[in-house]
Amino acid sequence: MNPTPRQRFEAAIDQPDAAIDLVAAALCIAQETYPDRDLSPCLEQLDAIAATIAPRLPAERYPLRWIQIINQHLFQDLGFRGNTDNYYDPRNSFLNDVLERRTGIPISLSLVYGAVAQRLGFPLEGIGMPGHFLLRPQVDAMELYVDAFHQGEVLFPQDCEARLQQIYGMPVSLKAEHLEPVSQRQFLARLLTNLKVIYIKTGAFTQALAMVDWLLLLHPDRPQDHRDRGLLLYELQRWQEAYPELTLYVQYQEAQGLAGNQAQDLPVIRRLLETLRSAL
């Protein structure tokens, strides 16, 4: 029997973080939504994009010049763009859709950009800035960032602060941790969290629950994911399954409360558990 997408995903992440293949893991996530579609051409497409760019690159690895050439092909020749018309379309987060439609959100376009750059021997690391996502060349003493959502625009730290203020529509101070690189697991968790939020906003609770289940493959013990799983199961009226998830969350928060770190949502979850007890 062939392994399921989730089984392949578990195998992909069951290794040191730096060895995780983001493209392979992202395709596992997409495969569950598109079970009857062959997604292997996505790898061929990324290979073809990199093969077209490679002869245009100068022998000297000047980061700004390489970025300019990658940008030219991805955004000018191929027409990749940030989806400003329908930002919360789930297709913006599935790699096969992003490659087919050539549109996406910051993290999915960064995935494409980073995958192409990796094939060219130009490694980039993901930067999980609040409300946005950037890439940074892995070059010593190189404080520049690439915004794949905005046509590969090159940003310096002061530009990142301006972008942050633009996103939030108010003065925001950029902190050093805002420009810290994310791990491969954090990258995948952010991709899945985006999908979870999109599905919750549209009331697609079954799909949102699936995203939480994927998140729990990455971080089995993360309490907020068990809480969200319980809340979604409650919305789906799967109360017997919701009860232990919410109980687990309350137990964790009560233990944290001993150290003064109790979550503010704990009273709400306790009341919900009381409602469930009376219904079961």
Walkthrough of the structure:
With 280 residues, the chain is mainly alpha-helical. It has two domains: 5-179, Roll (C8orf32 fold); 221-279, no CATH class. The protein contains twelve helices and six strands. It has a two-stranded parallel ribbon with strand order 1-2. A two-stranded antiparallel sheet has the order 3-4. The protein has a two-stranded antiparallel sheet with strand order 5-6. Helix 3 (41-53) packs across helix 6 and helix 11 (239-257) runs antiparallel to helix 12 (266-279). The mean pLDDT is 94. Residues 43-192 form the Protein SirB1 N-terminal domain. Belongs to the UPF0162 family.
Write out key terms for the chains shown:
Protein SirB1 N-terminal domain-containing protein; 6% strand; 280 residues; C8orf32 fold; mainly alpha; two-stranded parallel sheet; SirB1_N; two-stranded antiparallel ribbon; globular
Round the mean pLDDT to the nearest integer and report it: 94
Low-pLDDT parts are: none
Largest sheet: 2 strands, parallel
Quick one: how many beta strands? 6
SSE-based structural type? mainly alpha
Q: Give the CA-based shape.
A: globular
